[in-house]
């Protein structure tokens, strides 16, 4: 039996992604938690074995809550999952688009719908998930507030879709990661995520790291800089390569970067699943 956590309540995109991705694992206990940081903390405290969390969206970009939680708790990535996201404006039964003055959702979902929200002059209200936003709109009975969420959450809570596909671009995908505390086994993995902390700040430090990957013909699929928190302007880099952790060229790249004095910490090697 494995315990898997995701962002609740029922009806989140995280739930849809987790149920689909782990559909073949018969013996699973699901644990729903109130926020993305809580989900990651549950893995770090061994309350659950794994979790499914969003890390990147094609419109809104990287989800820093997830990245910072991964680093804070020193967690590992064992899979990444790409999931199509269609966002709808969801209101109480009887309310009309013309009644809506405020919109409520989790920040990444709001960031995916900025143009629509601006066009309609809607006031923003933040929630911990799309489903939490939908549930609170339902519980308030308020006709002037709508949530942004999935079609299935509207159905689940007896709400109505006031406007479909309110995201800024019709093709919208969120990438989730399956996170655990231990590194996963290396079988047929095509990508590697690592955290590189430069030994010191000097002109060209990032390009010295990137040059190693380009010299070895390793393509990068993702890069994100996060502050070390120690002083203003001091950053560390999360880099995802299109090469498995057991490939010789990856091993070589890591060794060279380490000889520069930089710290390299591998968060995981994995293969992408498109749901
Ligand atoms: O609130 C949800 O439904 C979630 O699963 C979170 C989340 C996110 O934070 O990116 C996941 C996918 C979508 O991009 C919108 C929301």
Automatic annotation (TrEMBL):
<dbReference type="InterPro" id="IPR002912">
    <property type="entry name" value="ACT_dom"/>
</dbReference>
<feature type="domain" description="ACT">
    <location>
        <begin position="194"/>
        <end position="271"/>
    </location>
</feature>
<dbReference type="Pfam" id="PF00800">
    <property type="entry name" value="PDT"/>
</dbReference>
<dbReference type="InterPro" id="IPR018528">
    <property type="entry name" value="Preph_deHydtase_CS"/>
</dbReference>
<keyword id="KW-0057">Aromatic amino acid biosynthesis</keyword>
<dbReference type="InterPro" id="IPR045865">
    <property type="entry name" value="ACT-like_dom_sf"/>
</dbReference>
<comment type="pathway">
    <text>Amino-acid biosynthesis; L-phenylalanine biosynthesis; phenylpyruvate from prephenate: step 1/1.</text>
</comment>
<keyword id="KW-0028">Amino-acid biosynthesis</keyword>
<keyword id="KW-0456">Lyase</keyword>
<dbReference type="InterPro" id="IPR001086">
    <property type="entry name" value="Preph_deHydtase"/>
</dbReference>
<keyword id="KW-0584">Phenylalanine biosynthesis</keyword>
<protein>
    <recommendedName>
        <fullName>Prephenate dehydratase</fullName>
        <ecNumber>4.2.1.51</ecNumber>
    </recommendedName>
</protein>
<dbReference type="Pfam" id="PF01842">
    <property type="entry name" value="ACT"/>
</dbReference>
<feature type="domain" description="Prephenate dehydratase">
    <location>
        <begin position="3"/>
        <end position="181"/>
    </location>
</feature>
């Amino acid at each position: 039996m494995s315990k898997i956590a995701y962002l609740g309540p029922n009806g989140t995109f995280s739930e849809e992604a987790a149920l689909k991705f782990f559909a073949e694992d018969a013996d699973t206990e699901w644990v729903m938690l109130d926020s993305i940081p809580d989900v990651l903390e549950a893995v770090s405290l061994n309350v659950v074995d794994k979790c499914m969390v969003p890390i990147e969206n094609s419109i809104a970009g990287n989800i820093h809550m997830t990245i910072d939680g991964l680093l804070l708790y020193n967690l590992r990535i064992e899979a990444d999952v790409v999931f199509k996201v269609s966002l709808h404006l969801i209101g109480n039964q009887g309310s009309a688009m013309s009644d809506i003055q405020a919109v409520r959702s989790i920040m990444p979902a709001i960031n995916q719908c900025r143009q629509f929200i601006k066009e309609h002059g809607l006031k923003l209200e933040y929630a911990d998930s799309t489903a939490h936003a939908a549930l609170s709109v339902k519980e308030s009975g308020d006709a002037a507030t709508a949530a942004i969420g999935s079609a299935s959450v509207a159905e689940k809570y007896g709400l109505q879709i006031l406007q479909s596909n309110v995201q800024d671009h019709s093709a919208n995908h969120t990438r989730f990661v399956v996170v655990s505390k231990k590194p996963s086994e290396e079988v047929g993995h095509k990508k590697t995520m690592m955290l590189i902390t430069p030994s010191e700040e000097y002109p060209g430090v990032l390009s010295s790291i990137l040059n190693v990957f380009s010299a070895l013909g390793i393509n990068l699929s993702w890069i994100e800089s996060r502050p070390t928190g120690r002083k203003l302007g001091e950053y560390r880099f999360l880099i995802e390569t299109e090469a498995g952790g057991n490939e010789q060229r990856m091993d070589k790249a890591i060794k060279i970067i380490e000889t520069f004095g930089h710290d390299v910490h591998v968060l995981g090697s994995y293969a992408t699943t498109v749901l």
